Amino acid sequence: MIGKENLFTDEQMKQFIANGYVMIKPNVPTSLHKTIYQKSDEVVAKEGNPGNNLLPRVPEIQEVFDNPVVHGAFTNVVGPNYIMHPHRHPHHNGPGSKGGGWHKDSYWGYGKVRNHRCWWAMAFYFPQDTPIEMGPTAIMPGTHYYLSRNNDVSEVKFPACGEAGTMIIIHYDMWHQVTANLTEKNRFMLKFEFARMQWPIEPTWNNQQEDWKSIEVPEPANDQTVMWEHLWNWLSGKSTKKTPNRASESEISQWMTALRIGTQPERLEATNQLGQLGENGKEAIPTLVDILGDPSEPVGLNAAYALGNIIDQESVLPLVDALNHDSETVRRHATYALTSVGPPAIPELIDSLTHESEHVRANVAYALGEIGSSNSALALSKLLDDNSVVVRRNVVESLGIIPNSFHISIPTLVKALEDPDKQIRFTSVLSLARIGPDAEDAIPALQSALKDKDRYVRGYAVEALKQIGSPKSKEILLDFLTTTRWCPLTTKESAF
Prior knowledge:
The protein is of the alpha+beta class.
């Protein structure tokens, strides 16, 4: 049981939703950070970057992640029973480095729609004092929802400076970069990734406010209240819809005019206001659909989430049609909108799983997973033989997050472990890990996956067997342990 003192407040959670990060400081002895820094420095100097073997080479790091402050932080954002990704990396920023470019971390080729909902998070941990001149990792607050960068004055660069032990928890899709190290000392940032294992059913932070209220922490440049509120509700485990507001005909007309000819802030405000109207804002649907491809990505996204609040079953077709738009941006925003619509969109989405366009099938598969209805599992499973690798990737991911459909999902995911695409195999074992004890029938296939040629497939096969937790899965894990790298001290310089 995590004490409330180690859980986020409502304001901290709003900070994470809107800005995409929260900074924390584990309450461990300063000497521990010093030890981790010294060992990291020695390992990199003698052996090169240990990459995924970081924890075996510097096992003290685990004490940091076991700390209640850190454990509480990740419970807040990715839920209880979260797991650590087998990929971890000590980012070494040596003396005199010039820094690097802005980027998002990869989903193995960027072929999937990025998750606005927090299924993934990362930790950037600095074991040494990291002033600005030492080249901290910089993030761009509020950009975790954007595929592109604005490249304008609204961009704010936030360097993660702090004393030894500083950790920044970020949404996986945050834009970030390494900055220049102007000192003569090595700077380390130890990066770890974490995955959500279950659908949110209640707030996992110290929640006192039932509904989203205006954010009191510093806001990003773009006010995206309609989207933030949707994500707050999802993380709270409740309906993403709210009681509709009312507005006069003149107010609605004013907002619709702003959508067509207003400035960027005016268009944002109009989408926020219209999104609060629910079914009372139906007359705005065509105009909102038209601006899904707005030159300003924040406006297009806000339009998507506004449509998700307004649209009912009879009005889903314009969004389904938009999935086949020439613009990738419009297709992506339509996907988020349909996800926000939720169950009323399922019949039309299922009908679209046979669409001739790869883009449509892939985005539909993604949306059905995010909606999370067991009614779509059977239809999704039929796409496992789709000729598009992107479609199949989205199918196996969705089957792992749709609850109460295990009798359909498990045989499909077991079959997917034979797919030639390593990302499909990786995602399949992750999905089986998310299913957990109910995936016992997958144990033989997971045992075979322990020999997969891809390291991450093997890594998550271990996690899946651990999550199943049966006597048979534990026996397999113990046997596997004896044939893996059992001695972390074995190096090319010390082989015996």
